[in-house]
Amino acid sequence: MLKLNHIKKDYIIDKETVHILEDVNLNINEGEFVSILGTSGCGKSTLLKIIIGLERATDGYISFENNDNNRIGMIFQEARLIPWKNVEENIEFGVDTGIDKKRKKAIVREQLNIVGLADYARAKPSQLSGGMQQRVSIARALAGEPKVLLLDEPFGALDAFTRISMQKEVLRLWETQKKTMILVTHDIDEAIFLSDRIIILSDHPGVIKREIKVDLSRPRDRSSYDFTVIRKEIYREFFEESDINIEYYI
Q1: Domain coordinates of the chain in residue numbers?
Q2: Architecture in CATH of 2-249
Q3: What is the CB neighbour count within 10 angstroms for residue 218?
Q4: Residue 17 burial by Cβ neighbours in a 10 Å radius (0-12, 13-18, 19+)
Q5: I need a labelling partner for 168 at 20 to 30 A (CA). Which of 19, 34, 105, 111 fits?
Q6: CA distances (Å), origin 203, targets 37, 161, 207
Q7: pLDDT averaged over the chain?
Q8: C-alpha to C-alpha distance for 133 and 92, rounded to whole angstroms
Q9: Treating both helix axes as pointing N-terminal to C-terminal, what angle do 130-143 and 101-114 enclose, rounded to 10 degrees?
Q10: Sign of CA dihedral 131, 153, 29, 191
């Protein structure tokens, strides 16, 4: 449903051209969960911003199978909630302005239930934990009824326990909402746990170095043999063989 065609992105910094992305070509199917994996600075987040229109590609273009249904939502690295508005009002901010008030309220209530925050509708962001704030951010993005949901390292600032909990939450939403999801991450286990496919970007300029299909049934066991085989396969793309603990990963 979504095609990236020869995407290139350059920046001019101190009169020098810096190549961020180079000839990125990618087809994403409807309902698919795709992760874009790479080290810091390889252009992962820039690619998401180009998809949603926050950045303009230097060259190349993006096409949708159905241009009438190309709504895109985005969840950022931080929740970016409006601090003086409560949870309900923050979610309502994501609803299309052309929708009547009754329908808008119904959408907000639905999203509150989906992310399990109905009891916190009147709470301010400062009264929520980091994980709960990100759930509000997810609800706000879903309230816009997107066909495609972009996730830009949304769990990077969370502790390990909350991060795992949020990964399960996003997986549950993907399974029930049937949205096409594109996740940017540098967490290898996260990419394997969530994805149908993993796209590995090289260091800048970011080019697609490899594509790995994760053909594992869900829910996935991070300690299973098949999971660790894929983990080691990905590690080989980033590290020398001598740096990989063979006994741990296989």
Answers
A1: 2-249
A2: 3-Layer(aba) Sandwich (3.40)
A3: 12
A4: exposed
A5: 105
A6: 11, 29, 8
A7: 88
A8: 15
A9: 140
A10: negative
| Mean pLDDT (whole number) for 177-190 | 91
CA 37 to chain centre: 11
Residues 6 or more apart whose Cβ sits within 8 Å of residue 160: none
What's the predicted TM-score (pTM) here? 0.87
The predicted-structure confidence for 158-168, as pLDDT tens digits, reads as follows: 888 888 888 98
3-state SS track over the chain? CEEEEEEEEEEEECCEEEEEEEEEEEEECCCCEEEEECCCCCCHHHHHHHHHCCCCCCEEEEEECCHHHCCEEEECCCCCCCCCCCHHHHHHCCCCCCCCHHHHHHHHHHHHHHCCCHHHCCCCHHHCCHHHHHHHHHHHHHHCCCCEEEEECCCCCCCHHHHHHHHHHHHHHHHHHCCEEEEEECCHHHHHHHCCEEEEECCCCECEEEEEECCCCCCCCCCCHHHHHHHHHHHCCCCCHHHCCHHHHC
Which one, of 75, 45, 248, 74, lies nearest residue 155 by Cα? 75
The answer to whether residues 43 and 205 touch, using CB atoms and an 8 Å cutoff, is yes
